[in-house]
Amino acid sequence: MYENFDIKKGDIVTITGAGGKTSLMLALADELSKFGSVLITTTTKIYIPSFDIFEELILDDSVLKGTGENIVVAGSSIEKDKLFGLSYDKISLLKQFFDFVLIEGDGAKEKLLKEWNPNEPCIPPFSNKVIGVINMDILNQTLVEENIHRFNIFLDKFSNYISKSISKEFLVEYILKAEYFKNSQYDSKYLFFNGIDGENYLNKFSLAIDTCNELTEKEFLPKLILGSVKEKRCYPFVPVTAVVMASGFSKRMGTDKIKLRYNGMSLLENVLDKLKFSNFYEIIVCGREKWTKDITAKYNCKYLENKNAKLGQSESIKLGVMNAHGKAYAFFTADQVLLTTGTIKKLMFNFEKYGYITIPASGGERFSPVFFPNDKKNQLLKLKGDIGGKEIIRNTPLISLVEFPYADEFMDIDTPDDYSMIVEK
Do residues 124 and 91 make contact, with C-beta atoms less than 8 angstroms apart? Predict the structure, then answer.
């Protein structure tokens, strides 16, 4: 986990926010203790870590021995199972004796959201990294007092959201107004979306990704990290551009297949309707007809005219990549109308989590859509003809195959018989 926060020897990291600060601090300490000595402390107060975590717990008037290695916890005193913090001056004196210093910089009373007093967060001026934490367990929660620390301050800022469910719109506004990084004098800032785990992991992931897309659009500067302290895994958010290849000639169908009707609308509209709810940073449609352009505008997507469509599918791929604002690419045909948003989100989750070329698979076969990371951009731009990205995949040693129990939803509608099959379903 520590690598995604770019923590190096000599770093002094302050953690703020709500929903897993102490757990994150302890998880990072465990990892970093393999590389050097770690100091854990707080500028407020925290629950006392268990004795198997630390080697020593240093107080103003005593030292307690633990069974851990390379981790020292420091505070001023213990009251009611809480470790009370140190002044900035005392932390400054201690920091020279450790390779890594981890500081919890504010409290949240174990609630999922918080607002900050004027004197919070308590970030020492010598802290060179700040990690803000927001927990996606807030999914399906309502904005009521029992879920929010310092509710009165929250009420002043967000009265129009009170008693409503958590939404992307609220999260974006909350994060933009939040004070995770107030008083921080350095540019190394991270916002960590914790809690993407459990049975509801995909919905938590979806809300986090939608929020990250919007924050990126608004040029939010701290780096966005997603993951789960519980699973001891985190990964950087990558905005993904969906490229819909809609400039083929439908030779086997005998007519422009993406105009054919399914569920009361064209095949292209079916695909775009799903993509609009599938967490992409942007959607690009590469076509060659005014009709396609008009449909793209209806869904508020970006249209690109493919003037080289006769040269093969690779021209749509290159056109999409050249004009993408995302940092990764997912390629869709315009006729996979049986794809579900759940499947698309599962593929996106695996791509974000591992960062490899990501391909759906079933029964020993591979299908599309395929997700490509940004480090394949130059190779994608060199493609020619109708081979698509298969050669790139063959020459890539590490790829991620996401298994699905059935292959039906990956079906391409290439022939009249294919079309008859989906219409009859």
Answer: yes
